[in-house]
From TrEMBL, chains A, B:
Catalyzes the condensation of pantoate with beta-alanine in an ATP-dependent reaction via a pantoyl-adenylate intermediate. This is Pantothenate synthetase. The active site is at H38 (proton donor). Gene3D superfamilies: HUPs (3.40.50.620), Pantoate-beta-alanine ligase, C-terminal domain (3.30.1300.10). It is an enzyme of class 6 (ligase). (R)-pantoate binds at Q62, Q154. The gene is panC. One of its GO terms (molecular function) is pantoate-beta-alanine ligase activity. Beta-alanine binds at Q62. It comes from the Bacteria. One of its GO terms (cellular component) is cytosol. It catalyses: (R)-pantoate + beta-alanine + ATP = (R)-pantothenate + AMP + diphosphate + H(+). Pathway: Cofactor biosynthesis; (R)-pantothenate biosynthesis; (R)-pantothenate from (R)-pantoate and beta-alanine: step 1/1.
Length: 281, 281
């Protein structure tokens, strides 16, 4: 039976009670609209901890005024059902006023890996993420938290946040879950028409081709330009970025280091992101 | 015997051991150069908690490039002797690299009470304070922390930081300690010549006169202008601000609410601040 709490006080009391019993507690922060990708994060959490807490909170501070805050999918009853089936012990479902009460005026900003990529197109995004995630960590006091590699830059920013603020927990990155065609699971896939879905499914193949080329010694600028062209030819309307970066710092990629190819592209009104590994060996 | 630790890991291990025994732990953050004002904070801590931790760290991030970071008084041996005599249980004396390792890139920013006053003259000051104090709270995990009312705007900013980030500790404000003439104890008083000391001692009397006038119904603008004039006539070289504000939010003061008169003034190369209560009754 998943316990559902809406207040920080109730969340903290339950987690502290578990930790006082010597139980290890994992947190999986989500914005709801749960899919198989999220369930894999819960599974990763339950492999490493005795208790799994999932937060469901659509964080207004990480949406720009022009973005999809209002139409972001919300389906709490369905989500709670998924948590129940996944064996999650506690769902934290605060209202906006619980997280950001009247007069709230504090923000956390992480430099380093937040530079460029998403920030070039969503300038306030990572401040919103760092602020809410920092608060969630302080509110819930978990031993570890699990984030998906799907939002790869976010994972790097969260690791840096934890390191820089000395937050006493471990961050676990969990591999992206994909459909049979390689499309990364995302709550925003729900926005896609049948035709757009076919186009979206080509994105990961293009990234894998680019990563293989780099691993094989191809020139970086040429490979990235070709990948951009491939994304547009697949049917996307615009490419925000496609770039090769070092794995942890997201500094410019250097041959013979582990890296990632990261992409953000627009398809109709939907913006999709994905990334794949560039192996150094 | 005061335990002295230089690493976050050793600090956290000791505080956790105490808390596991059911002992209540108080933190007093300082920049060293300890005087009777600091000792009064330790006393306030020891009245409320079983164990008192004092941090000594001159935080480079709260000094502007033009400010007195390099000449800020440092006297660790004397400070540790004071901690010993005050019955402090643990001194946390990290080096700069322990607090801000290579690549550190995160900052915490508190709005609300940080607006104007000090921020008008030291724009990055409260970001530096909020970042280091937030880190200290996360590093040391105390039940409570004591701050002096001498740095009144800082006290309000720290309370707001704790509230907004849901940090699980209580902030205690402790009254300003003054010499027989009313001069607020400050590490920066060490910069004053004998002649400047005489001038500095007039500052608190001027503030008390202004607060009394406001309590007696005098016009706010007239009273603040007179106070500014009084500070200059006492011999100060410049007045950064003298202002009446509400006690908690530092919003503009309103008659019949508790408030504070706050001042910052320059005397030679030294900048002094002080504040007094405006009682609503």
């Amino acid at each position: 039976m998943t316990i559902v709490v809406e207040t920080i006080a109730a969340l903290r009391a339950q987690v502290r009670a578990w930790r006082a019993e010597g139980l290890k507690v994992a947190l999986v922060p989500t914005m709801g609209a749960l899919h198989d990708g999220h369930v894999s994060l819960m599974r990763a959490a339950l492999e490493r901890a005795d208790r799994c807490v999932v937060s469901i909170f659509v964080n207004p501070r990480q949406f720009a005024p022009t973005e999809d805050l209002d139409k972001y999918p919300r389906q709490l009853a369905l989500d709670l059902d998924r948590l129940e089936k996944a064996g999650v012990h506690l769902a934290f479902t605060p209202g906006v006023e619980e997280v950001y009460p009247q007069g709230f005026a504090t923000s956390i900003s992480v430099g380093g890996p937040s530079a460029e990529l998403e920030t070039d197109f969503r300038p306030a995004f990572f401040d919103g993420v760092a602020t809410v995630v920092g608060k969630l960590f302080i509110q819930s006091e978990p031993d570890l938290a699990v984030f998906g590699e799907k939002d790869y830059q976010q994972l790097c920013v969260v690791k840096k946040l934890v390191q820089d603020l000395n937050l006493p927990l471990e961050i676990v990155g969990s591999p992206t879950i994909r459909d049979s065609e390689g499309l990364a699971m995302s709550s925003r896939n729900a926005y896609l028409s049948a035709q757009e879905l076919e186009i979206a499914r080509r994105l990961n193949k293009i990234l894998r081709k680019a990563a293989s080329a780099l691993e094989g010694g191809a020139d970086e600028a040429v490979t990235m330009a070709a990948a951009r062209q491939d994304v547009l030819e697949a049917g996307f309307d615009a490419v925000d970025y496609v770039a090769a970066r070092q794995s942890d710092t997201l500094a410019p990629w250097q041959r013979d280091t582990d890296g990632r190819v990261l992409v953000a592209a627009r398809l109709g009104k939907t913006r999709l992101i994905d990334n794949v590994e560039i192996s150094a060996s």
